[in-house]
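User: Structure tokens for both sequences below?

Assistant:
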Amino acid sequence: MKKNRSQNIVIIGCGNVAWHLASHLQSLKHYTVSIYNHQKNPALNDFKTKLKCSVIVGLDKVVPDADLYFICVSDSYIADVASRLNIKNRNAIVMHTSGSAKRKELGRQLPNTAVFYPLQTFSKSDTVRWAEIPVLIEASSKATEAKLLKLAQQFTKTARVLSYKERLTLHLGAVMVNNFTNALYVAASDVVGETNKNDFKLLLPMIRQTTQKLERLDPRAAQTGPAKRNDTVVLKKHLQLLTTHSDLKKLYKQLSKLIAHQQRNNHA
């Protein structure tokens, strides 16, 4: 990307992804970042006061001559937002940041379309280590692809060009390791909280250790516990504790079967 002038960047949306993109781009000093949202939202005030971005309400006001457009909205709104853009800069790149939406959601009327997907979970209050976050790219042309790889290198050490199917598969994996795992944290917190509401904190060292092991071990090799050992005595004790949690009891059984199946396949 050219660095001899300030590039104009439009970010549409004011959620967590928009926040962390805007924060990083503002820190690079050679971009002018403007935030647009379809309606008033209290979150816009932080973009203006804390990040010093221009904030504009109304998609009809999106400037037609920016260099880069990030559409950071829910998948179901990407196509509608893209269709309402009136872009005059033929070199502009319009991209969405979704892991599960196709690039074609951006339509055919725009000159250069792309996907710029940071493979990470974002909460506004998080400190984000961009250098460690993979950025997955898909573009309408090799020229656009090359420009986005250069842009991504200002965020991360890991920028990859992937097809839609590859990106969607990674998104599925992300849901499993993040959303599903966090749902189990919620369940564990609820269960141990029945005896002491603060006991979940005692599990935090184990959570950290489990994650750290995956830096050096294959997930199968890192597996431990009663299901792996086929320790039916412990399994029965756990199921008895879950008598009043019917959904969680079913899930415990299913996950234990999954672990046992994975271990059998590992030794087949």
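Moving on to the next sequence.
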Amino acid sequence: MSLQFRAVDEPTLGPKWTRCFSRAWPAYRRWFLSEGEALRPTYRQVVRALRRYMPELLPNYERMTELAGGGDFAARFLGQYCPPPFFAACSQAILLNPEPVLVRNYDYSPLLCDGLIMNTRWGSRSVIASTDCMSGVLDGMNKSGLVISLAFGGRRVVDKGFGITLVQRHILESCGNVAEACDELCRIPIQVAYNIALVDRHGDHATVMVSPDRSPIISKTQVSTNHQQGERWEKYTQMIETDTRLEFLQSTCRNTELSPDAIVDQFLTPPLFRNSYAMGYGTIFTAAYFPCRGEARYHWKDGSWIQRFDAFKERRRTAVYTDSTANPDKSPSWPPMPGRTARIPEGFIAR
């Protein structure tokens, strides 16, 4: 299977975003309605939740809705309030010497990824980020020097709250440092458990374990994979080898002789690099963010991009993924999803 990546430079929402949305919307619409329309919040409920928790996003949310054609389903989808739950694998590490760096693998299905990296200024800060659901952020950096990324937290609880990628967009647009970001993560309800890695240009850092049924856990741990303190989803964590990857990350990051580039190379090799694409959790890309330089690097097995706030380049590339564990042409079976996620996977607890 393959995925075309696009780097798009559009400071304010406009025709480039609209074209990308138009390509993605048919699949996203199927996903959004996959559990039935009745299970999705109304437009009024979405706006009410945004106004309460992230009012700074409302002007651009309204602009997105307009550019998307003004339809009810698109408006409800873009607000990312109580969407169909989804989860990925992912590994992430915060490095502090000789400079702050956040390195992460995004592990998911290439069939279900935007493949879009955007340089924007939708809020008060410029942001370079990989997008999700066209309104959200999988990982990214703002010009103030704050970096954020996510990994699924490996817990089964689902509750009322926002999709994490919209919250990450909000944080990059409105926060200038790790302390401010932590305050927002403690205030905004999140739908599913995630481990959020944060670092800023001053070297302040945190891993925030958010979950819909308990208060966030804020720690100074520098590496995270797909489990949290307390309850585990054992079938899932064993399948995606979260402990093996965490132990490898801990050992790698303790090696002070390894440069950030050498650690990135480790992310491109097993056990961090995964090729279970047909199952829905292969490594789609590796990202490394250097907040002091304002530089983002995106890596694939056969190449890389370097993007900077002062020299962002629009480009395209097609990444080809080979699955050694299953038929690469098979639709992902873990989690089961047509378009993205068909339903709450077996074993999830909807509260």
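User: Anything stand out in the second?

Assistant: The chain is about 25% helix and 30% strand.
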